[in-house]
Task: inverse folding
């Protein structure tokens, strides 16, 4: 459409604006396997030394594999529980008779819009009092709770699009509402579960502030905190090393992004946190 | 499970537990903590009643009881059974102890010299000066730095040394000796008085509105409209690239900006041939720091608007564009008269939504400038975080930080409720169609 208009000036204009971004990402990859002489723009030699953190611990830092395992546990457990809890609650809000239903719906919407990061100080004190400070369980519980309003809202939206006829037919055949949900409706929202699962996993994998404040210890450290501590250490400044750790950290995200890009675009435009 | 009313609540219950414990409770507790003086000094659980240098200074300054304060800080000497026991263990003669018990049990002394004088006058006088000093030490009593669970216990201990307290003195002592946190409105008074508060607030407003106008709506609109007029190939490419900042974990994303901006970084190297000295562009001047803070946040923020505006433009019926082209409309006229009117609601949505998230987010600023140089880019949320959770001195002011957060929580609740009204709540909450 709009064949009357020339296109190359727009492509050129946007291309210029996008250049810094592209440069940053290209150099992210290039710098992890090369060395650049001081003052030069282009690298002059290939090397794998920046990846040494994979087999030796960096000064003052725990093993990268421990941090990777913690990050994986944090993201996976959060995702699984968010999926289970929000697919139940979403169905309840979408289809079932509830006392004070519009109160619950309004509440979920308000919580969804609510800026959770403002609660950090109170959450920190609560975990201290519960004895869950500096544990993975504590930070997982918090992350789940803060993700739930979004998850429930998304799942409710998807349940709303499932035709009522499916459920009515199930009820006619004598199934209970619970059986109808488990056997007939859940398979209908598989794409939603997949999408929410990916979003939750990415959110968990990228999370920085919560583990930084609630679980900073070396035993429970996740990759984001590991990398931030590495960068903040003035005694061992090595940009290429930072980038290599960063690339290692971001690899799962890139893989998910490449495979599920369209799904992500749809969900993000459905209005997640900005 | 036949009753769908109960099933509804059962399915909702797990979510309820999580949300109440770690979402609603923190909202309420932020309000409560905001009205306390909780800090690393007071601890977060209940405190104790302690006589020490600082609480006694307060007793002198606030109640004028300097004499009592001085008296409580000095050691007392009491001849009691516990003291006699200690004296025996420190090697006193049995006869000495018997004499002390018979003649002087329950006697108090205000100074070491007094009790030593007494010991010298005893019939069964200890053999050496050293023995006298040792025995005197067994009767030494002090409340200094002892933690009492209640003011009654503290008063009882003090009166055991023969110090008689008036009711007013007891009350004053209970007030000043408590080392735990107490409820207070001092945080808000301090907040109003500190010049930093107003500077931080001005920073916050500047940050939110410039990022919002330049990027989150402004540049997002540019991206959506330009990609709309492009062939699918480049349009898809640009949309994907501009989604990258949102997908990239914040720590890595900010690291890439640091690589661009640090004194040995890409920007410095590129500008060196032009005669511009290398510098850390992120932190050298407030203006440069702000530029980067806004760019860093704006590049992330633009993608959400871009996606929402793009799908809104896609929803505009194609014939509208074709008809306007036949009528000879320029591209600018199309944008002005077709696209922008259709985007009114999405723009309002993005603006309101992102106002709230920019107002409260500090992750990228924390990672990029940490509020520097010299507090120039310190925004409200970052200041609250630093007060309560990250302070190099180690003295964390939980109460004051919570009070600062409370300001944001209140704004958050009010704005969320307004948005709920604004974006047509009724349509979203239709009743279910199967009744049982």
Result:
């Amino acid at each position: 459409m709009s064949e009357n208009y020339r296109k190359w000036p727009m492509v050129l204009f946007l291309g210029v604006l996008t250049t810094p971004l592209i440069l940053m990402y290209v150099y992210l990859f290039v710098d992890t396997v090369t060395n650049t002489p001081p003052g030069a723009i282009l690298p002059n030699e290939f090397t794998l030394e920046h990846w040494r953190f994979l087999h030796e611990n960096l000064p003052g830092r725990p093993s990268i594999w421990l941090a990777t395992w913690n990050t994986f546990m944090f993201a996976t457990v959060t995702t699984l529980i968010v999926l289970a809890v929000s697919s139940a609650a979403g169905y309840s809000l979408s289809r079932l008779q509830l006392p004070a239903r519009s109160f619950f719906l309004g509440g979920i919407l308000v919580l969804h819009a609510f800026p959770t990061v403002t609660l950090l100080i109170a959450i920190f004190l609560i975990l201290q009092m519960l004895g869950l400070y500096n544990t993975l369980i504590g930070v997982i519980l918090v992350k789940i709770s803060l993700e739930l309003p979004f998850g429930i809202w998304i799942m409710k939206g998807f349940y709303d699009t499932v035709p009522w006829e499916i459920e009515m037919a199930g009820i006619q055949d004598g199934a209970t509402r619970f059986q109808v949900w488990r056997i007939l409706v859940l398979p209908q929202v598989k794409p939603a579960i997949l999408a929410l699962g990916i979003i939750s996993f990415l959110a968990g994998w990228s999370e920085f502030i919560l583990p930084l404040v609630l679980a900073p210890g070396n035993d429970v450290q996740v990759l984001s905190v590991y990398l931030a501590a590495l960068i903040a250490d003035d005694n061992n400044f090595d940009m290429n090393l930072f980038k290599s750790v960063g690339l290692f950290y971001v690899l799962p995200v890139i893989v998910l992004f490449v495979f599920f890009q369209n799904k992500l675009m749809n969900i993000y435009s459905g209005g997640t946190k900005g | 499970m036949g009753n769908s009313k109960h099933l509804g609540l059962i399915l909702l219950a797990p979510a309820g537990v999580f949300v109440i414990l770690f979402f609603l409770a923190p909202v309420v507790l932020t309000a409560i903590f905001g009205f306390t003086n909780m800090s690393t000094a007071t601890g977060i659980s209940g405190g104790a009643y302690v006589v020490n240098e600082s609480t006694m200074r307060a007793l002198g300054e606030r109640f004028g009881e300097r004499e009592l304060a001085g008296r409580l800080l000095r050691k007392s000497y009491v001849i009691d059974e516990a003291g006699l026991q200690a004296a025996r263990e420190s090697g006193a003669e049995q006869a000495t102890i018997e004499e002390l018990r018979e003649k002087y049990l329950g006697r108090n002394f205000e100074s070491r010299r007094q009790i030593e004088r007494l010991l010298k006058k005893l019939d069964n006088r200890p053999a050496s000066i050293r023995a006298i000093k040792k025995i005197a030490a067994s009767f030494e009593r002090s409340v200094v730095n002892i933690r009492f669970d209640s003011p009654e216990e503290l008063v009882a201990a003090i009166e055991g040394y023969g110090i008689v307290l008036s009711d007013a003195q007891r009350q004053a002592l209970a007030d000043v000796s408590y080392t735990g946190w107490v409820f207070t409105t001092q945080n808000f008074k301090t907040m109003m008085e500190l010049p930093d508060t107003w500077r931080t607030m001005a920073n916050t407003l500047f940050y939110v509105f410039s990022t919002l106008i330049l990027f989150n709506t402004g540049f997002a609109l540019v991206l959506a409209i330009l990609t709309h007029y492009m062939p699918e190939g480049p349009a898809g490419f640009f949309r994907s690239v501009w989604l990258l900042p949102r997908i990239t974990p914040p720590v890595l994303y900010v690291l890439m900006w640091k690589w661009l901006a640090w004194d040995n970084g890409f920007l410095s190297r590129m500008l060196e041939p032009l005669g511009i000295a290398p510098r850390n562009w992120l932190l050298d001047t407030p203006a440069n720091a702000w530029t980067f803070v806004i760019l860093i946040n704006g590049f992330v923020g633009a993608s959400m608007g871009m996606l929402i505006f793009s799908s809104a433009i896609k929803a505009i019926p194609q014939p509208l564009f074709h008809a306007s082209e036949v009528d000879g409309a320029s591209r600018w006229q199309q944008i002005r008269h077709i696209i922008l009117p259709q985007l009114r609601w999405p723009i309002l949505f993005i603006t309101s939504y992102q106002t709230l998230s920019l107002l409260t987010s500090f992750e990228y600023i924390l990672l990029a400038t940490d509020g520097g140089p010299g507090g120039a880019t310190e925004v409200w949320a970052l200041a609250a975080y630093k007060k309560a959770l990250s302070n190099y001195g180690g003295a964390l002011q939980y109460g004051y930080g919570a009070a600062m957060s409370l300001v944001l929580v209140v704004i958050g609740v009010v704005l969320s409720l307004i948005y709920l009204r604004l974006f047509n709540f009724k349509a979203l909450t239709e009743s279910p169609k199967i009744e049982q």
Observations:
- Confidence is low (pLDDT under 50) at residues 270-274 of chain A.
